[in-house]
User: Fold these one by one.
Assistant:
Number 1:
Amino acid sequence: MTQPSRSFLFTPGNHPRRVEKAFTVGADAVILDLEDAVAIAEKPATRSLCVEALKQPRACRGYVRVNSIDTAFCFDDIEAVVGPWLDGIVLPKVERAADLQAVDWMLTSLERRHGLAPQSIDLMPIIETAIGHANARSIAASGGRLRRLSFGGGDYTRDLNLQWTFAEDEIAAVRAEIVLASRLANIEPPIDTVFIHIKEHEHFAASARKGREFGFQGKLCIHPDQVAATHAAYTPTDAEAAWARKIITSFAAAEADGLASIQVDGYFVDYPIVEKAQRIVDLYDAVAAAAEARA
């Protein structure tokens, strides 16, 4: 993991002030929206606004959420926004591996047109329908430039007529399946759903913690205020990183003496525990490096 992917902050692509602010609040990535946050009549004109915004100096990655592949807007969205200014495309309502493969082919062609390195443009699908849930494993295994999945609880609960509660028990099964599908395909851990109650800060924090417990690596955000809480949930604390380093160091010393299972302050440690500790250290260091680069 070379860059942290804890927070992906959505902002409407046709609101310049919101776009400008979004790039300053410390999110790991900003997603300029061409889909749900933009009125149909505004979609074509918003494409160039997104490009101009992405060309400006910024301290985090810049993505565009295009319209879904079954709309009349998707092809023109992608063609208009791809260029050296873009870090990635977010593709909503993905239901089949073929959806991703078609967009991957488009991106490959556009990378050639713009003289970009192959697969330099990220492609992140959102699983947000019953069909997408059912096909999550084949979507995750579709190959190409796919690095991670993401989950959209708003459309998912609408599609299945679920009551989206603060406890979020009704989306536990799809969360678990998306994490499992990602692991089976050997791609990065996924990005968890947005949380639509902007003023419910405690419930948002609980949702972020729940996503981390399920195995997600970050969360989609819809308001700048949600970024800090997301980072609090998904960033190892100084104490956690220090403990992880102690596990790694102690185990390395024991392994040199031929031991592969030890106790560290009464905590059993073997190879799987060391691997988890290394993940904590890697993320902690990646976050620190990203913060230093912004400074």
Number 2:
Amino acid sequence: MTIPGLALFYGGMVRKKNVLGTIMHSFAITCLVSVLWMICGFSLAFSKGSSSVIGNLDQFLLNNMGVDSLQGTIPTSVFMTFQMTFAIITPALITGAFAERMKFSALLWFMGLWSILVYSPIAYWVWGGGFLGDLGVLDFAGGTVVHINSGIAGLVAAIMIGKRKGFGVENLAPHNVTLTVIGASLLWVGWFGFNAGSAVASNGAAGMAMAVTQIATAAAALAWMFAEWATHRKPTVLGIASGAVAGLVAITPASGFVGPKGALLIGIAAGVICYWGAAWLKPKCKYDDALDVFAVHCLGGITGAILTGVFAAKAIGGHAGMLEGNIGQVWIQVEGVLATLIWSGVVSAIILFIIDKTIGLRVEPDAEAEGIDLSQHGEMVH
């Protein structure tokens, strides 16, 4: 999902002079977070101790993981590696918000610190035995942990680093939408592992998660396409691909708890709401979230998280939602959304502020004009 899926999805949407640097973000984050997850991230997220806020270091350097170790009914090595993929893609998603203008050194510092100080705690809150899980927040595969988390961090980063040179004046259009469609398609396929795999078994729950993922994604892609068609008179390839990702995002928290009808409505809602965020909210507020991370991931994640509380079906995931008489589940979902927004937003801002005051966040104006491919990596697409 991250490489090559997200790398190509984002790489196609930037200008040609920034494509290699953008792909490098996803590749380097995959490497960096893999090592950090092995050292301490997994332990902080999944070592249950007395705290309801953060795990302990019992699994530091994976020193308790052997070939016969089990996490539930599956090998700990498999569970650890599966969860590593979530830990990798979440910070990688953020990079689309500040595309084309962050120093590579600053990016590595930000992503490393963010992975430990933001991702691992929130993963623990929801999945590792923390207070949001105890509260009853439903998040099957990462609506809060992955998407709201990365989406709000992306917005904070885009605002703090500032707008791209020429924003609102020059043509900043994608250089290769074909790459973006290939990336979106790989994300779509990979997402079946994301959602169905979160059942941690090969059973009916995994099958239903796969089915509702397909339904919601298709519905959101069509909803975005028709919304764009109605407002701009032409349906774009970039639009339908973005809508598909919005649907994938929104069904992520709900995939183990809702049926096909709920998935259809979640997808339609996500397509319309995320399109509104990208086409109206961003221009209205004038922030430069280059690749619509906030609109697609934060708004899509919020949509999916709250609608999980509406459409959750006891016969599918064991939890009743508002339509089955449990209106309180909607408020529980809202509490999970708010906790994630606050922690991720505030801690992300603190990390970015410290980096900016030490090594600096942004490339120099001349380097930005030249492109991050040459200025940061010494290479370019010919």
Number 3:
Amino acid sequence: MSEVDWLSHLLRIVTVTGQLEVRCAYGAPWRVTWGHAAANEIPYHVIVSGRAILEDPQTRTTQELVGGDIVLLPHGAAHVLHDGSGQTPVRTQEHRGSAGWVLSENDGQGEKLDLMCGRFFITPPHDRLIRNYMPANLVTRAGNGHGEDRGGSASDQLASLVRLMRMESSGDRAGGRAILDALSSALFTLVLRASSEGEQAPAGLLALAGHPRLAPAIAALFADPARSWKLPDLADMCGMSRATFMRHFQDKLGCSALDLLTDLRVSVAANELRKPAISTDAVAEAVGYQSVSAFRRVFTERMGMTPGEWRRQARHRA
């Protein structure tokens, strides 16, 4: 794995799986409502064709989505998708296929929508790492799939992935559920890659990773969080003074580099504490703390429980 591949390093720490749940074939007027997702779940929607209005009831904000748009809601917020007409929705009928996902249809005669909906599942406690550093809504546009460069852009790769998901969800074939789940997991990674490479990367981790001068620091922190990083070292890596580095980092991420480093160490420690054979002292040293008491203090502050309590909870969950 490349040392500059921050996303692969992130996904070694944070286990994310995906699941396609509903394929919607609607004619306007239509409306679908989702409640707040569980702490370890991120809803996603893929507009295969047509148009949809994404509405946040809490903030009363709306956003128009069109064919090729993919939306993730990393904070799991309650939301509504509708056709924007304000008319009474046509009643839907649902049919569950053998692959586990549901086909939802209506007899609406208005503008047609082809929509795929599902969820990503994040292994606890890493949902907090994702939600702390991702925007509430993450919208990415899939390309036309005809990129001329070898391998295509992330946007074009997304378009190819969506076509595969659409084909696989068009029938009940052997291995269909397993393939759709695997494609959903890949969807999460490609959306993050495309968002970080876009010209308007959203605030937070994706903006930081996509910043050409700050990218070396984020890659270094993810590649080796146990290292005793100092701000001057990170600033030098980015060709900045310490003050400039701190200001840019704070502006993009909303917190300091040392805050991010602490969260990464706690997340790695949470994974290590699942292993019954490794002691708390050994975990503390493995994630960069020379003092086990300092590690316990930081872990408890970030997790709301001691390392021992987390270990017991994780063992019970398993």
